[in-house]
Structure formats: C-alpha cells, structure tokens
Amino acid sequence: MFLDAAAVIAGVTIAKAQAAAFESDSQCTKRDAVMKIRAVISLPDSQMVSEARDLAQNSSELYLFNHVMRSWIFGALLAEKDGSKPDPELLAVSALLHDLGLTDTYMTNDNRFEVDGANAARSFLQTYGLSPIDVQLVWDAISLHSTRSIALHKGPVVSFCHSGVQVDVSGNRYDAIEPSLMEQILQAYPRLSFKENLTNCLCGIVRRKPTTTFDNFMHDFGERFVSGYQAVSSVDRLNDAPFES
C-alpha cells in the first residue's frame, strides 16, 4: 500500500493547524483566567515584581513556577480576607522567589534550600533601592516559609507568604478560597503533577545534602522515600555533648 504524498502533506498541515489552534485556545483560556483573578484581587505589577516573576520563570521548571504563582495569589487573597495589609510588593517578591533554592541555579551544597532561596532573593533585591529592613523582611519570609510554628507569629509579609504556600502544598485554608476563584487559579496556573514533582525534587535534595534536612520537615521525605537515610536525633546531640551533665 502506498500513501499519496499530497494526502500525507495535507494531513500534516491539518495536524499542525489543529495543534496551533489548541495552543491558541489554551493561551486564551489562561489569559481569561488571569483577567478574572485580577478582577477579584489587586496584584502589584511594578518593575521589581515583574522582574522577580521573570527570574522565577526562567529559573524554574513549569510545575514549580506555577506553584509560586499560585502561592502568591493565595497569600494575597488570604491577607485581604483576614483584613491584613502586608506590603504587596514585598509579599509578591517573597512568594515568587521562595523556591529558588530548589533550582539548579541557586542550590548550594551546604545550606537548607530555604536559605539558598532567601540568599538569592537578597542578591536580586540589591538593585531596587529597598531599605535593609525590607530586604531582611523578604529574606525572613523566604527562609521561614516552611516553618509554620514561627512564620505565623511574624509580621504579615512573612505570615502570608507562608500561608499562601501552605494552601498550595498542604491544603491548609483551602476552603478560604472561593471555589470559582480556585478554579480560575488552577486554570491559569495548573498543578502539572505538583505532588509527584515536588516529592522527587525534595528527595533529590535529601540525597544531595542530607545534613541540611535533619532538623526540619525534609527528614520526613528522607525517612519515607530515600534508602539508607538516617537523620541525627536531637536527643543524641544532647546526650553526646562533651559535658558531664
């Protein structure tokens, strides 16, 4: 059986056209969703925020970029719902850059990933004329974004950066987001197998620099998923201290 060349070419052309149409429809759907989100919540779009968004997008895999975008939106929505007024730009930058420490570009071999991200954000902010206090605030928000027992007792930038992240990671305060708005957020920034991808990413860090995971939530991933992982116990540290009592 021989295929007619013209038919093959026509078929390829149709397939390309259908793919282009699908991509165009997807872009339109995302654009519409973003517009609906912005109609509900005012999100800053200054040069600093725009460039922070670009940095996150250029440094991260798409699933991770979508996560930081959702985290930003969730944090801003919760702040508004709670009647709090964190600095919108500092909250935006904190949320957008909070996972830079999970990327190859900014990951070191000896820091917790949260510290790597906070250090990267601090370097990013040097050219924007922020006060040292504001730069430190962003550093604190990022370094503490996974430490709920502390973050919730800090100021609104830190606490709502954490809270926005936790909506997306653990579903904490999920019900505080209107279902129709949640649908638009997920349409604009889909999860893309977020649970599986984040688990794989965190396990990679556990393997690469296990000593940074012993005193925080990362050891849960090590114990469950990483063969041979053994965290150093705080009890052992106390008992092994070089004192008689």
From TrEMBL:
Top-rank taxon: Bacteria
Domain HD/PDEase: 60-156
Cited SUPFAM superfamilies: HD-domain/PDEase-like (SSF109604)
Gene3D superfamilies tied to this protein: Hypothetical protein af1432 (1.10.3210.10)
Name of the protein: HD domain-containing protein
Species this protein is from: Acidisoma cellulosilyticum
